[in-house]
């Protein structure tokens, strides 16, 4: 009886996994401190013809056949001059002498590109090359001794691992968001060339061209597209 009681006392209930403690959650501070200075903010100016709208078609009511003709073929009103169009984006330095990677769609047809560093210095950038199929562009600024990122191997990415995006959503420089890899080799509608990494990281207009980091601080992708009804997560919280 004593032996049976002793045995019962040594038996423990089966353990069940509990919630992660605070120390087990990822800490992104070191990653951001090391790599944040190498992420840049891009301001892009394009000279574009304004789209035709109702103001371009004076004198033609919407039920007039000429209204539909001018609207369909996008014939601009010659009395309206083309005005510069401004856009925002992100990029990241890959060499100390000012070589930058970003998205092709961020700088395509750009008349001027201005790069702002985290120390608030600004430089005019030259578009060295654009590959529209992969949506990658290379820029160059005239500077030295700049911070750089380390490039990783996206083929080693695993679904479920933590990733971090740094960029300039809505123009807010060096904003950091995090999430996990949701899927790999994802094909999007009308896209059959580039296998995308799908994540649940919050990105918004202005994040395009910014780096996606793994937890080793290596760039494994460029934040290129947002797939949603609104065109982004559309919101930043300030408290």
What is the strand and helix layout of this fold?
Layout (H helix, E strand, L loop, with lengths): L1 H9 L18 H7 L3 E10 L16 H8 L10 E11 L5 E4 L1 H4 L4 E5 L5 E3 L1 E6 L4 E5 L9 E2 L10 E6 L7 E12 L9 E4 L11 E3 L4 E5 L17
Note down, in words, how this protein is organized.
With 239 residues, this protein is mostly beta strands. It has a domain at 29-49 and 86-222: Thrombin, subunit H, CATH 2.40.10. It contains 4 helices and 13 strands. It has helices spanning 2-10, 29-35, 65-72, 104-107; strands spanning 39-48, 83-93, 99-102, 112-116, 122-124, 126-131, 136-140, 150-151, 162-167, 175-186, 196-199, 211-213, 218-222. A 7-stranded antiparallel β-sheet has the order 5-4-1-2-3-7-6. Strands 8-13-12-9-10-11 form a 6-stranded mixed β-sheet, with no helix packed on it. A hairpin with a 5-residue loop joins strand 2 (83-93) and strand 3 (99-102). The longest helix is centred in the first third of the chain and has 9 residues, at 2-10. The model is unreliable at 1-13 and 52-57 (pLDDT under 50).
């Amino acid at each position: 009886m004593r032996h049976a009681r002793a045995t019962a006392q040594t038996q423990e209930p089966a353990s069940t996994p509990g919630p992660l403690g605070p120390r087990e959650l990822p800490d992104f501070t070191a990653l951001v401190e090391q790599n944040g200075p190498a992420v840049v903010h891009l301001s892009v100016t394009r000279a574009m013809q304004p789209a035709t709208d109702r103001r371009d078609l004076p004198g033609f009511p919407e039920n007039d056949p000429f209204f539909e003709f001018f609207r369909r073929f996008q014939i601009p009103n010659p009395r309206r001059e083309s005005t510069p169009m401004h856009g925002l984006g992100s990029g990241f330095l890959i060499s100390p002498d000012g070589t930058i990677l970003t998205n092709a769609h961020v700088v395509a047809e750009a008349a001027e590109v201005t790069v702002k560093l985290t120390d608030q210095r600004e430089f005019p950038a030259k578009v060295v090359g654009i590959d529209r199929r992969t949506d990658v562009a290379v820029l160059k600024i005239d500077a030295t001794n700049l911070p750089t990122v380390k490039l990783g191997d996206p083929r080693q990415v695993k679904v479920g691992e933590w990733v971090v995006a740094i960029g300039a959503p809505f123009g807010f420089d060096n904003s950091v968001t995090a999430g996990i890899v949701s899927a790999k080799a994802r094909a999007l509608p009308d896209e059959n060339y580039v296998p995308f990494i799908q994540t649940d990281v919050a990105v918004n207009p202005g994040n395009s061209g910014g780096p996606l980091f793994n937890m080793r601080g290596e760039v494994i992708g460029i934040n290129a597209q947002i797939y949603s009804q609104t065109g982004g997560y559309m919101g930043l919280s300030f408290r």
